[in-house]
Amino acid sequence: MAEEASPVRFGIVGCADVARKVSRAITLAPNATIVAVGSRSLDKATKFVASNGLPPNAKVYGSYEGVVEDPEVDAVYMPLPTSLHVKWAVLAAQRKKHILLETPVALSVSDLDKILEACRSNGVQFMDDTMWLHHPRTTKMFHFISDPNHFGRLQSVHSTFSYGVTPYFLENDIRVKPDLDALGALGDIGFYCIGTILWASSYELPKTARALHKPTYNDAGVILACAASLSWEDDKVATFYCSFLSDMSMDIVAMGTKGSLRVHDYAIPNQEKEAKFSTSSNSDWVELSIGWAPNPSEHVVHTDLPQEALLISEFARLVGEIKYNNTKPEDTWPTISRKTQLVVDAVKASIDNGLEPVQIQD
Amino acid sequence: MAEEASPVRFGIVGCADVARKVSRAITLAPNATIVAVGSRSLDKATKFVASNGLPPNAKVYGSYEGVVEDPEVDAVYMPLPTSLHVKWAVLAAQRKKHILLETPVALSVSDLDKILEACRSNGVQFMDDTMWLHHPRTTKMFHFISDPNHFGRLQSVHSTFSYGVTPYFLENDIRVKPDLDALGALGDIGFYCIGTILWASSYELPKTARALHKPTYNDAGVILACAASLSWEDDKVATFYCSFLSDMSMDIVAMGTKGSLRVHDYAIPNQEKEAKFSTSSNSDWVELSIGWAPNPSEHVVHTDLPQEALLISEFARLVGEIKYNNTKPEDTWPTISRKTQLVVDAVKASIDNGLEPVQIQD
């Protein structure tokens, strides 16, 4: 008889700002709890527990090792600089911890493969922290773009992710430091644009990536803004733009043979509990081409739990299945992460080779 | 003393379907009237007058010459296949007719230059039939993207224009015939995408155009769908997608350093009398990055006259100025047409050279 399921016990490895949001999500998820927090500074870990409403009995460690080695930790959430992912995620997997890894998952697919191989060989679940995939709006949108009568075959998709950062960010944030997050905006937010494009194409890997212009770099050579196109063997084409230097945007404009989809806040909805998108299907001109019929439709999707809590809940469900029912880790999530990273790598290669097209090979 | 202004007298040269819409617009515009209609078939011209509510005393001609040579015609509207534009627009200009030319204006900038030179040397006004530029929504949107505090400098713009055509269209329409409209979708609707991009960049000509994938062609080698990117000397980048094979779309997503603009029906609003767009300015995350503040804003712009009647009204105003006040033709409109055609030519060249970048030179 299976052991009775109790909440999955999370350890937080690193107290980056995003860890506050994810800690709240773990607290909100019904099947997860926080049992340990580690930082390079014990003081920082202690303050993190106190100031973010974490369980007062959560253990605090002045090191990442403390959490990774703690036998009471089932799963680790790792909001570490990307350059540290291989070391700490591999070590955690070896200690049989399930891994929820902050994005971008790795600096290259070869790095990611080390992490995924460690997860595979240790039988632990891997998931990256792409929250929007867990929003019920995303499920509804995917249902629409999978509908052969209302959307048809995907023809084109454009995606953006941008936000205008502060001068302080440009000087100090890990996302612009070559030794910490060398992919800069391409990793931090281009990863999401690429993820939306793969999502819209039902994860059919594109054949070719090409960067569209010389990216904007900081003095250390880290990308602050870039654009690229992806194309497939058939007639599908995708473009994206990501930037730390533009107004906030998170757009998807996806066009199929019979319908189209638009969303403007895919990664983080404007509001936590309700999210919008619009669709158009089989539209035609009215007489004299002075209007459309039918007009596009607006949709609103409500959610009680925010998308990050739904992510935690799904991750904890998979961990619970493994822990209590001896199932195997679910391969869907690492596969999505890996395809995304493959495309990130190809775009980076195209940027580095002077905008020449780069073949994407699995 | 100036002659008293009376409505500008239009002759319609060709009875294509779009001529019905423009004839209605001429009828709606307070300063314009239709005095002649010519078709290769007298019967077709006669039926056109009768079935479209045109003035019963409008003259009908079984030829284009009839209209172009008619001394009572001030201005001609030419909805002819693009391959006929040079011949008929040049002839009309030589007969001192002001020219309202249907889009795409020409098959190449060298063709267009013949038309523009004829207009210049004969002192007649040239304007192409890009209606959306005359909608009050467009003025409001331009005001927004010109605002240094709410939009800032343009960083990226994506534009689409697509509609799913019928099997009949794919077999019979002039827009897919190599001898009539050899640019296919690139001319018919790519022209509009490029126009929006130039508009968003305040008509700063891009430096480079590159096609993004092998276009979809029909059996005769005419483009049915294509995509391209444009880039400037600075960090701006633009992309567009146009297609006869996708659901109807007319999107602009423009991002500046401080704001962004979205419109989904720029070319032909969903509804004739009111049109929407949305803007976002200086948005930031709320605490914990679980939402935006401020949220994007929706705007609705009403218009009593449809955009095509506003175009006619503006064109007729310029013609009236020349006719009654001896002013010179306004150079803004031909300049916009020519810049657009320059970019169309560059995209076509990139398509034809296997997706290599093409420099855009004036």
UniProtKB/TrEMBL annotation, chains A, B:
Ranges where the Gfo/Idh/MocA-like oxidoreductase N-terminal domain occurs: 8-127
Molecular function GO labels: nucleotide binding
InterPro entries assigned to the protein according to its UniProt record, in alphabetical order: Gfo/Idh/MocA-like_OxRdtase_N, GFO_IDH_MocA-like_dom, NAD(P)-bd_dom_sf
Lineage: superkingdom: Eukaryota
Signal sequence, renumbered to the chain: none
Residues covered by the GFO/IDH/MocA-like oxidoreductase domain: 149-262
Residues that span the membrane, as ranges: none
Gene3D superfamilies assigned: Dihydrodipicolinate Reductase, domain 2, NAD(P)-binding Rossmann-like Domain
PANTHER family: GFO_IDH_MOCA-LIKE OXIDOREDUCTASE N-TERMINAL DOMAIN-CONTAINING PROTEIN, PTHR46368
Membership in a protein family: Belongs to the Gfo/Idh/MocA family.
Official protein name in the record: Uncharacterized oxidoreductase At4g09670
